[in-house]
Amino acid sequence: LKVITSLVALRQELAVIRQQGHRIALVPTMGNLHRGHLRLVEEARRFGDRVVATIFVNPTQFAPGEDFDCYPRTPEADIRALEMAGADILFMPQILEMYPGSLKAMTTVHVPGLSEELCGAFRPGHFQGVATIVLKLFNMVAPQSAVFGEKDFQQLEIIRRMVHDLNLPIALHGVSTVRESSGLAMSSRNAYLSEEERQTAALIYQTLQTLAKALRSFGVAQIEMLEKNAATELTLAGFSVDYVSVRCVADLSLPQGNELPSSLVILAAARLGRTRLIDNLKVADAS
Ligand code: PAF
After folding, report:
1. Residue whose CA is closest, atom 5 of ligand 1?
2. Who's near 164: CB < 8 A, 6+ residues apart?
3. 152 lines ligand 1 (CB under 6 A)
4. Given CB 3.0 to 4.6 Å as the disulfide criterion, which of 37, 54, 110, 197 pairs with 91?
5. CA atoms within 13 Å, Cβ hemisphere of 86
């Protein structure tokens, strides 16, 4: 694993790789890597001859008052993990390398509509920060393919739209969520949970499973009632629920009422103490 911190050095290294005719697969991350991230690297090895991982805790995707300052940073452990997982290059820039100028005066990417819904409604500017940094990373690395976790389902759909709308020649691959044995989706933010909260947190996935099964039995006519029941269940367990929402898998639009349950995905975001957790489940994948 070659660890690179400057953009000039990254471009030099990638130029050689490209000259040799290798395909590049990109795995963008914010570090504090867990098994979910390592699955992304393993998947990336299928799509590229060389895997470039990036670690950058991107300030522009954190709204004021969010956890940018205390977001877990574990570079040494991350480097060891990436080495084991078979990444070839780690690009780990400082903030000034990524944002040399004024953040306020910078060109940004905004994917309208979906960026303001679901998590976007609760995290103003978040998806603009994500789309902008991902486009910057795409331009810096110029990969043929890029791999993202489906745990951030809305993020992946927004990146898909950006790639489509801006004609980026990059194939996107989504990778299914890796879970703890309790069902809790792996996330760097799980590190904020106390032992007791961690047990409660597993309820999110159970609630999604219950809702998916109910959708399969009752059909889409009952969506609103089922969403409300799921949110109430989480609230009673101690969560502060941002949303539980059933959407179409294909584009995250609101179901019109004539969809098959198997074409739907349930997304949820809820806070437990100071930790904001998100998860999702495709109805077709519910067990
Ligand atoms: O999913 C993440 O970790 C981040 O949002 C990403 C895609 C690396 C952009 O900062």
Report:
1. 130
2. none
3. yes
4. 54
5. 12
Query: In whole angstroms, what is the distance from residue 207 CA to residue 229 CA?
Result: 9
> How far does the chain reach from its first CA to its final CA, in angstroms?
38
Residue 61 near ligand 1, beta carbon < 6 Å:
yes
d(CA 59, CA 69): 9
Tell me if residue 145 falls in helix, strand or coil: strand
Is-contact 188 210, C-beta < 8 A? Answer: no
pLDDT attached to residue 78:
98
Residue 113 alpha carbon to ligand 1 centre in Å: 20
The answer to whether the CB of 132 is under 6 A from ligand 1 is no
- The mean per-residue pLDDT over the stretch 89-97 comes to 98
Q: Encode burial over 159-185: b for 16+ CB neighbours within 10 A, e otherwise.
A: bbbbbeeeebebebbbbebbbbeebbb
Whether pTM > 0.85 for this model: the answer is: yes
Closest residue to atom 6 of ligand 1, CA basis: 29
**Cα 23 to Cα 4, 48, 185, distances in angstroms:** 19, 5, 31
Q: pLDDT grade, residue 213 (50/70/90)?
A: very high
Q: What mean pLDDT comes out for the span 209-225?
A: 94
Question: What is the distance between the alpha carbons of residues 157 and 170, in angstroms, rounded to a whole number?
Answer: 14
